[in-house]
Specification:
The complex is a heterodimer of chains A (214) and B (211).
Chain A: H1 5-8, H2 11-14, H3 23-26, H4 35-44, E1 49-53, H5 56-65, E2 88-92, H6 100-109, E3 115-119, H7 120-125, E4 146-148, H8 155-170, H9 194-198
Parallel strand pairs in A: 1-2, 2-3, 3-4
Chain B: H1 12-21, E1 25-31, E2 34-39, H2 41-53, E3 61-68, E4 77-85, E5 90-98, E6 105-107, H3 116-127, E7 130-132, H4 164-173, H5 196-203
Parallel strand pairs in B: 2-5, 6-7
Antiparallel strand pairs in B: 1-2, 3-4, 4-5
The chains are: A alpha/beta (214), B alpha/beta (211).
Chain lengths: 214, 211
């Protein structure tokens, strides 16, 4: 880190006869690092979550934030109930179509840099709710960074997901603008291509025997 | 149900209903200890109002209104009223059979029990039963522009009529603020509808201020 064998030798010592300088007298008082490392270190350790709890996953999320599991250990000191101050949106629970424009607006209101954790089976894929009222995975309406499986996931699972997100943030670069571009709903009114959304519900799910036309 | 009471005993309200309304009672039966009374559609509103107001009946609490659609398309859709008398501590279940080939219409009981307001809206939302006389018959669970039909009907496919992409597109196009106000509601605005004791407390400034 910039300190080499040569700089350890005080110039006076090289000139001849002088004694070896002490470390403190030659300490460079500087260090080099990557700006990315510094920025990412700050970002990953001060994630403020925007809790979007709609179902039983929110109960586990509350347990994660409470004293036994203590989310504050990971820099998540404060739940940000305003999207304005939020860094990571945690969708904890199933998302009905009625709430789709709501979560999309909250996501659009959050300033960059921002990340999203999809907590639980329902938020990630629709889960057991393969029906007329439910969004089949929130990644059909907004970008997702980490999926946490489980029904609901235990607090350990959510914490593992958060640590994965922290790892992901460590690998980011502030020079890469694509990471921070807003991923908007396209003019077609969809976030993903229509064919991609359509095939999500089939052939899997709990209602494979029921046809759409009935 | 207390032990010793015969399981297949009709509620005494049934004979009282028959004496009062005659053929308005189509049939009555006991299922799992509960009396179920089938009412004719055109007389149902009068019978329900009587059940609430008659002192000997006093079914003053409307527990629930719901409906049952059976898979057999010939079988009528059944509207279910679950009543309870809080004073007498008895329950009564009444049903109205609605022919699915005719328009699903029935008189609202909003004027009898105010609690029927949202219950009837929910039945309308899920089954498409129209309650005539209801003051504000709108969808309550699904959003108001929902165009796919009535989800709890048996002929409704589980995943809805539209494709997933179309459903997602419509959902994202919705304006969540179109039908709901973000303004804070003040109880002072409903001053004239409040009971006397609430008005007193409001006048003393306990729950807001009158303008």
């Amino acid at each position: 880190m910039g300190v080499t064998e040569r700089t350890l030798q005080h110039p006076a010592a090289q000139d001849g006869g002088g004694e070896l300088a002490t470390i403190s007298s030659v300490s460079p008082n500087w260090l080099t690092t990557r700006l990315d490392f510094l920025v990412n270190w700050a970002r990953k350790n001060s994630l403020w979550p925007m809790p979007f709890g709609t179902a039983c996953c929110a109960i586990e999320f509350m347990a994660t934030a409470a004293s036994r599991f203590d989310l504050a250990r990971f820099g998540m000191e404060r739940m940000s109930f305003s999207p304005r101050q939020a860094d990571v949106l945690i969708c904890a629970g199933r998302l009905p179509f009625k709430l789709a424009p709501v979560i999309r607006r909250i996501w659009d209101q959050m300033p960059q840099p921002k990340w999203c954790i999809s907590m639980g089976a329902c938020a990630s894929s629709g889960g057991i709710f393969d029906n007329y009222a439910m969004v089949q995975g929130i990644d059909t309406i907004m970008p997702v960074d980490v999926y946490v499986p489980g029904c609901p996931p235990r607090p350990e699972g959510l914490i593992y997901g958060i640590q994965l997100l922290q790892k992901k943030i460590e690998g980011e670069s502030i020079a890469d603008h694509r990471l921070r571009d807003e991923k908007l709903v396209s003019p077609s009114g969809l976030f993903l291509p229509a064919e991609q959304v359509d095939e999500l519900s089939e052939p899997f799910g709990n209602s494979v025997h029921q046809t759409r036309s009935a | 149900m207390t032990p010793g009471v015969a399981m297949a005993e009709l509620s005494p309200s049934v004979s009282a209903l028959r004496a009062e309304f005659g053929d308005a009672v189509e049939r009555a039966l006991v299922s799992c200890g509960d009396t179920i009374v089938y009412l004719r559609r055109d007389r149902a509103h009068d019978a329900l109002a009587w059940l609430k107001d008659a002192p000997a009946q006093a079914f003053n609490y409307l527990t629930d209104i719901t409906a049952v659609d059976y898979r057999d398309p010939e079988r009528p859709l059944e509207l279910v009223y679950q009543l309870r008398s809080l004073d007498r501590k008895v329950d009564l279940r009444l049903k109205i059979a609605l022919d699915k080939r005719a328009p699903l219409e029935v008189l609202s009981v909003y004027d009898v029990w105010r609690g029927a307001d949202w219950l009837e809206r929910e039945v309308y939302d899920m089954f498409g039963v129209v309650f005539t006389g209801h003051p504000d018959l709108r969808r309550i669970l699904m959003w108001e522009t929902y165009a796919e039909g009535y989800p709890l009907r048996k002929d409704f496919p589980l995943r809805g009529h539209f494709s997933r992409a179309e459903q997602t597109r419509q959902a994202l196009a919705a304006n969540p603020e179109a039908h709901y106000s973000l303004e804070e509601l003040s109880i002072a605005e409903t001053y004239h509808e409040l009971p006397q004791d609430m008005r007193e407390r409001l006048r003393r400034g306990e729950r807001g201020h009158l303008r």
